Amino acid sequence: MFRRILVPLDGSQTAEAVLRLAVPIARAVGSSVELLHVIPDRKSLARMGPEDPLDWRMSSRRAHEYLAGPARMLAEAGVASESRIEEGGPAEIIVRILQSGEHGLVAMTPHGRGGTGELSLGCTAGAVLLHAPSSLLLVPPLPDDARVRRIVVPVDGSPRAEWAMDLAFHLADSLRAELQLVHALVRPNRFGILPGDQEQDEVSRHFCQANRTAAVRFMAQLQDRHSPRDIRIEGRILEANGDVSGRLLEDAEASGADLVVLSAHGHDESVGWRLGAVPLRFLLAATVPTLLMQDFTKPKGSARPDAPHLNR
């Protein structure tokens, strides 16, 4: 699943809180963790004043000492880890590391040392979301006793969503968590200037009913398929009224989700983009921990030739 998980840490308690979810996920899927701390490069320091090699060496030493604490915690939790110090801009360094293809997942906070401000997503997390090719675990501030008790998985019947569900079922089984499958039902839109009439309303009603029936059947099949596992599974249909991402987030908050697992692409979204519209909007406003499953390949041999499958 994920051979290695990259966890960027900037010295803030908010960033370190990511480990409260990254550690159990790493244990569940058998991943190792690479801890990353980025320090300013010497050229940047030189622009701020006369370069002092001793200042840079002290900064590097403090970085190694800082990462020793999280590394000990990971060792005590039974998770293999490595520490890595890099120089430069955090966003650029993180994206560059992920582009090497050695990490299937990056786990980070929406905001680090810079604080939350008025934005749901900080500049570093936003850059990683838009440019990194790996899956992403985005973890907002969590209480000290946080654990995964309830996992919510949006489903749309696509092979990619089902692939994300495979991980969700595995996590729910390993973490003894409840699993909730949700489908956002959207009424078809008519062209703006067309007046409504009874025939169009009837077609729309039949379309929605067919989608609802198919979604209920699909979720029932999933529950039957995974019934031998000791997992509590629920399924529900949401009325989205056009704003799918907003409705899914509203439902995740109301249901007390500890983790949302969703695919980067749905059944009607082009894999040529790193993110589909629904997951992008969801993550830009997410207030609950979210694991975005990234996959640039289309199912059953229809992948683009230049798109490697990074999470095999």
Q: What is the element string, with H for helices and E for strands? A: EHHEHHEHEHEEHEHEHEHE
β content, as a range?
15-25%
How would you classify the helix and strand content by structural class?
Answer: alpha/beta
The neighbouring-strand order within the major sheet is 3-2-1-4-5-10-9-6-7-8
Q: Quaternary state, please?
A: single chain
- Distance between termini? 6 Å
CATH architecture of the largest domain: 3-Layer(aba) Sandwich
CATH class of the largest domain: Alpha Beta
**CATH fold assignment of the largest domain:** Rossmann fold
How would you sum up the global shape? globular
On the 0 to 100 scale, the average pLDDT is: 82
Strand elements, count: 10
Q: How many separate structural domains?
A: 2
CATH superfamily membership of the largest domain: HUPs
The largest pleated sheet is described as: 10 strands, mixed
Number of helices: 10
Keywords, please?
312 residues; alpha/beta; Rossmann fold; ten-stranded mixed sheet
Please give the structural blueprint.
Blueprint lengths: L3 E5 L4 H4 L2 H11 L2 E8 L2 H6 L5 H24 L4 E7 L2 H10 L5 E4 L14 H9 L3 E4 L11 E5 L4 H17 L2 E8 L12 H28 L7 E7 L4 H11 L4 E5 L13 H9 L4 E4 L19
Parallel strand pairs: 1-2, 1-4, 2-3, 4-5, 6-7, 6-9, 7-8, 9-10
Antiparallel strand pairs: 5-10
Helix pairs in contact: 2-7, 5-6, 9-10
